[in-house]
Amino acid sequence: MSRFFGRFQPVRMRMCFGVEFCLIAGAVFLAALIRFSTHGIMLSKGAPYLPHAGLTALVCQVCMYYADLYDFRVGLSDRQLYGKLIRALGAAAVVLTVLFYALPPLTIGRGIMLLSLPLAFALLVGWRLCYRHLQTMQQFRTKVLILGTGEEARKLAGELANSKPPGYEVKGFIGHEHEIGKRVL
């Protein structure tokens, strides 16, 4: 874990944030390519869209943060994920529209935002479902060693074992209340 804005952030959350930033920015580039494909836009000429794609991704992710899509302690059902993501992207569309109106040089281009938001939705849903599957795999679980063997330690181990999503694996306990090798749970 590392500090970000004075708080410790797990590597998983930073990785998810980075991948989603790239997916949203990629959706903006893809929308520009689709929108201006008749005008012969090339990927090498996509450099002017880089700040716009970054701004769009940042605004979308701030809205996703406030929609609690980066609270990985809560397991979301598919329906909750779709609903929160639609609300977050809708709020991002409103914020971006106000920004584009207030600061015209930030405008992406005609029709690009309209195309990029559904593309971003599809990419983000696919990523989140893949990420959820990765969290259930044994290789990606965080190993936990609990200090203590009392009632609180057993409750903590039970909560970690039953957490949604299952991202933790209790490897053992350290304490002096029980004999070595005696089962605590």
UniProtKB/TrEMBL annotation:
Entry keyword set: Membrane, Transmembrane, Transmembrane helix
Transmembrane segments: 21-43, 49-67, 88-106, 112-131
Protein name: Polysaccharide biosynthesis protein CapD-like domain-containing protein
Organism: Candidatus Entotheonella gemina
